[in-house]
Amino acid sequence: MRQRRVCVVVSARPSYSRVKTALQAMQAHPALELQVVATASALLERYGGVVHMMESEGIPITARAATVVDGHTPTTMATSTGVALLKLVSVLENLEPDVVVTVADRYETLATATAAAYMNIPLAHLQGGELTGSVDEKVRHAVTKLANLHFVSTPRAAQRVLAMGEEPNSVFVTGCPSIDLAAQIKNYATDRRRLLEPYGCPDLRADYVVVLQHPVSTQCEQAQRQMLETLHGVEACGVVAVVFQPNEDAGSESTARAIAAFRAARHGDRFFYVDNMRPMDFLRLLDGSRSLVGNSSVGIRECSYLGVPVVNIGSRQLHRERGANVLDAPHDRAAIAKALGRQIDSGRYARDALYGSGGAGEKIAAILADVSLSIEKSFAD
Amino acid sequence: MRQRRVCVVVSARPSYSRVKTALQAMQAHPALELQVVATASALLERYGGVVHMMESEGIPITARAATVVDGHTPTTMATSTGVALLKLVSVLENLEPDVVVTVADRYETLATATAAAYMNIPLAHLQGGELTGSVDEKVRHAVTKLANLHFVSTPRAAQRVLAMGEEPNSVFVTGCPSIDLAAQIKNYATDRRRLLEPYGCPDLRADYVVVLQHPVSTQCEQAQRQMLETLHGVEACGVVAVVFQPNEDAGSESTARAIAAFRAARHGDRFFYVDNMRPMDFLRLLDGSRSLVGNSSVGIRECSYLGVPVVNIGSRQLHRERGANVLDAPHDRAAIAKALGRQIDSGRYARDALYGSGGAGEKIAAILADVSLSIEKSFAD
Amino acid sequence: MRQRRVCVVVSARPSYSRVKTALQAMQAHPALELQVVATASALLERYGGVVHMMESEGIPITARAATVVDGHTPTTMATSTGVALLKLVSVLENLEPDVVVTVADRYETLATATAAAYMNIPLAHLQGGELTGSVDEKVRHAVTKLANLHFVSTPRAAQRVLAMGEEPNSVFVTGCPSIDLAAQIKNYATDRRRLLEPYGCPDLRADYVVVLQHPVSTQCEQAQRQMLETLHGVEACGVVAVVFQPNEDAGSESTARAIAAFRAARHGDRFFYVDNMRPMDFLRLLDGSRSLVGNSSVGIRECSYLGVPVVNIGSRQLHRERGANVLDAPHDRAAIAKALGRQIDSGRYARDALYGSGGAGEKIAAILADVSLSIEKSFAD
Amino acid sequence: MRQRRVCVVVSARPSYSRVKTALQAMQAHPALELQVVATASALLERYGGVVHMMESEGIPITARAATVVDGHTPTTMATSTGVALLKLVSVLENLEPDVVVTVADRYETLATATAAAYMNIPLAHLQGGELTGSVDEKVRHAVTKLANLHFVSTPRAAQRVLAMGEEPNSVFVTGCPSIDLAAQIKNYATDRRRLLEPYGCPDLRADYVVVLQHPVSTQCEQAQRQMLETLHGVEACGVVAVVFQPNEDAGSESTARAIAAFRAARHGDRFFYVDNMRPMDFLRLLDGSRSLVGNSSVGIRECSYLGVPVVNIGSRQLHRERGANVLDAPHDRAAIAKALGRQIDSGRYARDALYGSGGAGEKIAAILADVSLSIEKSFAD
Questions:
Q1: Residues D189-214: pLDDT tens digits?
Q2: How far apart are CA C105 and CA C216, in angstroms?
Q3: Taking CB atoms and an 8 Å limit, are D66 and A71 in contact across chains?
Q4: Do A82 and B89 touch (CB under 8 A)?
Q5: What are C326-378's pLDDT values in tens digits?
Q6: Per-residue pLDDT tens for C14-38?
Q7: Interface B-D: count of C-beta contacts within 8 A
Q8: Per DSSP, what are the bridge partners of residue C131?
Q9: What is the tens place of the pLDDT at every residue in C61-74?
Q10: What is the pLDDT of residues D235-280, one digit of tens each?
């Protein structure tokens, strides 16, 4: 019997983390042929050279589609979506997959979903039904309505996907594959002190926090100020901080500018700056930290499983389901410092299986191998 | 006070019909500045020269965007969406509207919605929440999730939009502006006999039916056979028939080929072929007919208001709300002939206000002038 | 040693005819790996289903790129070029050829050349240096300036390519591969009477002429009148005529409309209409005809080799090198009738090797296998 | 009489400098209506915010087209050309100019030329016929073959444009408008010491040189090493140096990386880094310098007029006409240091009018107002 051709579109460092164990499980599955399309910031060196990372981790790239229009403005994001759509149509036109897999809520996700829907290719979507409070959420739900299969992280997300009219037998609560990775790092003896060496940073002996904050694309003109508030808030706590670059998005230049300005103005030896890190190392770094500060969904998702305290800033994760480990703060340095102080004091939280507890990638591969594939669906009133 | 700039994207003959009275009401409204973008098949002569029709009806075109990729295959539809997206981004980049209006469920609708969402421009969608059973329905609901304001036709459609998590104060049951046109033709003394003269057809003295059938893009390889079944079914009834060309869609070449083959093979004087007709004349033609045969939403929508019997064929309108005037038939000539016979015998139905009863265009313009515009929204659980 | 990957972009019926023997020779060459990209009207059924023809003739398609934007206006031609460029970049991004081959002067030719030039892939161009008097000629010469290797048809064309500053060792006078096909049909016993049978046309017993006229894209608003003049001119000669559809170009809808109107208005049994024909059959049809009427380059090129008289109408081939077999006429029915009368009287011309005498395809393949490939070149003052 | 609509596409800092006086002259000309389209890196902050500069200098932007695809690889440059083409088609579709003006040799230049050629809009090209030795030169000459009017800088460039078959009455030796700016700065009393203050640099009291080096897109993998050789070569001379960022091009990230690495590793106070400078200030800075080092065409062009010594490195300006002020060096730090030493010793050169002596902008505007505009042209054998 011919293997089912599953085409997974990977578009960024975080989307790779959220699909990596599923990719590995698909590769290993005898009934599946894996096609991997690398696109968007996955192809850009300054967003972490995701394609090199994938290849070094044994995931070969089947096709590439360079699509990111420079400028990080609302106009360029919309333009990028158009470029991504045209290139992905071309790629799918030539790969002829049986099913396309798209992840989360980025513009490449929507471009992938649009291409598959019009090309009559069944579409599977990972991480539908979650709430994030910006254009990303609009896109996430729009992709749900274009998709035929839904691999969701939580029962609450499944409820929302069903409320939107998706057919019950198309919704699978697999948990999030990103938790599979978090589950794996528990097996490592974390020697956090040497983690930053390959990135040019010295020994991490002190307690430290991790800072990872992305621009909110509907507030992109405030991204610079928002990042500065966070950095000053962390600084006020007097703690060692490892600061990461934001994702590629409208406003990310402003966020990066804030980091550069802060870095240029201060010469404290308590702040370290990392452009990029292998996902497993990043998880180990998080696992060893006193807190994650910023607005990354990693705080909501992996940190809930790991029990790492999180100071979640601003509206980016506003309505997202979260565990007890998350404390919210507004874009205000005093409030951020206060919240961080509380989280450092509170120490480690109990592990929470809210977004899964491992095995999601294998479940997804198994379902994709067995499920009946169709482009038809009915609104389930 | 500066007028609100409302940018309406018109992309095809039917979408013009469904928004025409709204365009007129926006033009007339003192607080609104109307921008009209003509795109997709609205720019193509063989789909009825919609731009000329609009200009002759006093609706000036602000910008154009030629986007239809030839071939009418799933691949070309996806490609067209990409071209439409890139061109509409360029148009919106330069028109800078305060709100964008998009209609129904076509690929240009999705391209418009995607552009607006990423460009942080509030988006209003007409005709959300309806069910149609193909990629169009996926797109319709995806657009709902990208939109900020919803002008829906029926309370049932409103319910679905709300079920999908839209905020109650963003959903307005205005009825469909297409019914406004149907309400207007009631004022004409219909001299149906002369209606076809400008289209090169002779006097319509006999009773007649109207045939309008579009390809279903998820079944586009069957479009030719499906159209032939319909034509043969109508012929079996021995009735005069006025046959229209399908919309531009994946499969429309096959549908057109079926019409051409049928036309070439038969020389009966009971079938007339019309490429295109002014919307008001088309409604008058319908209003004077014994039945509409095919799968156009006009049968569900305007004919319900007019009380014209409809033989609705196949799955295209499967789950759509319909009035008592609609009788379903499969793609089978005998079944079509039988259903058409029953509808001709039944005669006129009572008027049904299911999709509205006039005034929708003015309601939409009034709301767009007054409503608070925002790109933010929350999933209403 | 790794085979050289040669990627040939085939975009239309005529460009396939002009490259077919080269494709066959590349397939057969042990040092070459052939990649064929089908794009533009080669993918459209109504322009002759070139991809099916290629596959049936043993040329497999490596990748496809649907690119033709509908409308046949100057705007849509420019848009198509952009779509072709984006899709061909994606195709080349994934095929990674060592050299790209592009043919003649169409917008896909320019898109191919632009993609290759910026992607640092050496580019070979067929049929540079010829004169045609419209946007096509601009594009032909622009492609020459983007190309690294030039396979030209005539010494005069070579002179022009050199005058434009190309390096002498990059220019090869191979003759045109289309003449290879013309040379092959001489081996057939032409039974022209049965040639039209597969196309639904009856026996061709009488003497006949062939009509093939394309719109001139810089005069596209006159295309309809120009075609009508030709048809009326031919009719005035009282001869049997086989009329072909035009290429896909700005204005081709108008040309087709003229043919349809002429056909609808006349019921003479002396005019036959053919949508499309296999290239070899078309050459045999030409070879058996009394004259070719229109503005196709086939009249200049293959007919010169075959010795078939040609009435060449209008400016499309204005400055093109031609043999004694070509008689010019303006877009005027009386002048066309007069010229056609003279050509019918004159009878067959002597064979002229102006555009080659066979073997061009093999020469091109041999050169591509041996030549040093580079993206660098200097203007040869 | 209606004004002629002249649409000038401005795409980068250098192309603005080369067309600025022409824009001003067109604005002032009573017979011309100026339309300015800002595209490509002109819209990007990190390439100097050209649009803000233009607006502050009284040149309003008529339309915008964001087009730069991120990555600076050959693939992304080709992709950018496709995006530029689609967006410029949309812009021209709506601006409807009588003539389009495009400058020099960038991908946006080719996109503009392609759009105009297919849209039947006459095209004027500035700076045709020059030699630069990379893909840029291919593009420059391809644009010449697509253009209808040629405003060239030197008689030698005119000769080449004519050799390529352009009609003599379409070629105008106006000189380069960039020299108009150089002529204007002679009127300033150059207080070079305060020039760098607005850019955060201290007083420039010492003698200094200016470093400006771009990647060569056909050698983009060597860009980083090439830039480092230059910086080390300059350092070896012990001179104060003002270092500028490269243009946006394939390889420019590597060039920028070299600058950043050099800057991070050295803490000498003799190197100053400037992201961007107003063109007039840049010319004044050059005029006050001991030498320009790098491969910018400014060295060939403006510096020849100013008499500033230039060390021209590598192949980027290989075949370009140059004055006595230019001394070539390979990408080798020792050779660069030696050449720079010689230029510093030689001191100022005599002014050379090779590329013009002022008034070019006004000549161009006057010709555009008077010349007969046509899209037709013939190859002048």
A1: 556 667 887 776 766 777 899 999 99
A2: 13
A3: yes
A4: yes
A5: 999 999 999 999 999 999 999 999 999 999 999 999 999 999 999 999 999 99
A6: 889 899 999 999 999 999 999 999 9
A7: 32
A8: none
A9: 999 999 989 887 89
A10: 999 999 999 998 877 788 889 889 988 988 875 568 888 887 878 8
Whether A299 shows a pLDDT value over 90: the answer reads yes
Short-list C281, C221, C277, C283, CA closest to C253? C221
Count Cα atoms within 13 angstroms, Cβ side, for A82.
43
Q: Parallel, antiparallel, or unpaired: how do β-strands D208-212 and A171-173 relate?
A: unpaired
Compute the distance between CA of residue C314 and CA of residue C52 in angstroms, rounded to an integer: 33
Numbers of helices and strands, H then E, in chain C:
15, 13
Q: A89 to chain B, minimum CA–CA distance in Å?
A: 6
pLDDT in the model for residue C10: 96
Calculate what percentage of chain D has a pLDDT beyond 70. Answer: 96
Q: What residues in chain A have their Cβ under 8 A from chain D's Cβ atoms?
A: 43-46, 64, 66-71, 73, 75-76, 79, 82-83, 87, 248, 253
Query: Which residue blocks in chain D are alpha helix, DSSP H?
Result: 13-17, 20-28, 50-56, 74-95, 107-118, 135-146, 155-163, 177-185, 223-236, 252-265, 279-287, 297-300, 302-306, 333-346, 360-370
pLDDT of A219 reads 77
CA atoms within 13 A on the CB side of C251: 19
The Cα C143–Cα C160 span in angstroms is 13
The DSSP output letter for B307 is T
Of the ranges B43-57, B85-99, B324-338, C225-239, which one carries the lowest mean pLDDT score? B43-57
Q: How far apart are CA B88 and CA A78, in angstroms?
A: 10
Strand pairing class (C63-65; C32-39): parallel
Q: Are A142 and A107 in contact (CB under 8 A)?
A: no
pLDDT value at A275 more than 90: no
Let me know if B192 is exposed, middle or buried by CB neighbors in 10 A (0-12, 13-18, 19+): middle
Mean pLDDT confidence for A41-45? 88
pLDDT higher than threshold 80 for residue A276: no
Q: How many other CB atoms sit within 10 Å of the CB of residue C200? A: 10
Measured in whole angstroms, how far is the alpha carbon of residue D5 from the centre of its chain? 24
Q: How far, in whole angstroms, is CA D297 from its chain's centroid? A: 7
**Average of per-residue pLDDT values in chain D:** 91
From chain A, the residues in CB contact with B376 under 8 A are: 133-134, 218
Q: Work out the average pLDDT over A102-124.
A: 96
Nearest by CB to residue C63, choosing from A83, A89, A94, is: A94
For residues A219 and B120, give the distance between their C-alpha atoms in angstroms, rounded to a whole number. Answer: 9
CB contacts < 8 Å between B and C, how many?
49
In three-state secondary structure terms, D36 is: strand
Which structural domains are found in chain C, ordered by start? 4-174+359-370 (3.40.50.2000), 185-346 (3.40.50.2000)
Residues of B in contact with D91 (CB under 8 A): 90, 94
pLDDT of residue D187: 58
In order of B63, C157, C250, D7, D357, the CA distances from D90 in angstroms are 9, 36, 17, 13, 37
Inter-chain touch A69–D69, beta carbons under 8 Å: yes
Are the CB atoms for B209 and B292 separated by under 8 Å?
yes
The edge-to-edge listing of strands for the beta sheet with A32-39 is: A63-65, A32-39, A4-10, A99-103, A123-126, A149-152, A171-173
∠ CA(A240), CA(A242), CA(A244), 5° rounding? 155
If you average pLDDT over every residue of chain A, what do you get? 91
Helix (H, G, I), strand (E, B) or coil at A243: strand
Q: D78 and C114 in contact by Cβ < 8 A?
A: yes
- Mapped to the 3 state alphabet, what secondary structure does C239-292 carry? CEEEEECCCCCCCHHHHHHHHHHHHHHCCCCCEEEECCCCHHHHHHHHHCCCEE
- Which pLDDT does position A199 carry in this prediction? 73
Q: How far apart are the C-alpha atoms of D216 and C50, rounded to whole Å?
A: 40
